[in-house]
Amino acid sequence: MTQSPFSLYLADDAATSTLGAVLADRAGPGTVILLSGPIGAGKTHLARAFIRARIGADIEVPSPTFTLVQTYEDAAGDIWHADLYRLGHTDEVIELGLEAAFETALCLVEWPDRLGPLVPANALHLSLAPEGEGRRLSATPADHPLLRGLGQ
């Protein structure tokens, strides 16, 4: 029996922020969330909402487009926010230290296609796409623990 894909319509930025907060509440060290979608789909918005829910609503959360990785201290363990858009080869992922972070930190990775074979087996892959006034979230695996109880 095949599993139905997980899909959720996020009507606006507030809905995306709420999802980020829900995921942040459920995540722990070793959680890896992969964020895919075109430029402007809401990947960074979701990551910011996640980070702010964990460590404070007023914290500045810059996009890691140029730094590649931003790290934040959290009581449960470090949070790594990576934007791999500018990477050209998977070897650069290793140089960033992401492989080790996948084991111990909360990791949010934009443009995860750059990971190649380094994608952790337990990762939650969230794909965002513009739809109407909001965005459509698709997630795999559909039965990932972070998604339990969320609408489909």
TrEMBL record:
InterPro entries: P-loop_NTPase (IPR027417), T6A_TsaE (IPR003442). Its main location: cytoplasm. One of its GO terms (molecular function) is ATP binding. It is found in: Cytoplasm. One of its GO terms (cellular component) is cytoplasm. One of its GO terms (biological process) is tRNA threonylcarbamoyladenosine modification. Keywords: ATP-binding, Cytoplasm, Magnesium, Metal-binding, Nucleotide-binding, tRNA processing. Pfam families: TsaE. Belongs to the TsaE family. This is tRNA threonylcarbamoyladenosine biosynthesis protein TsaE.
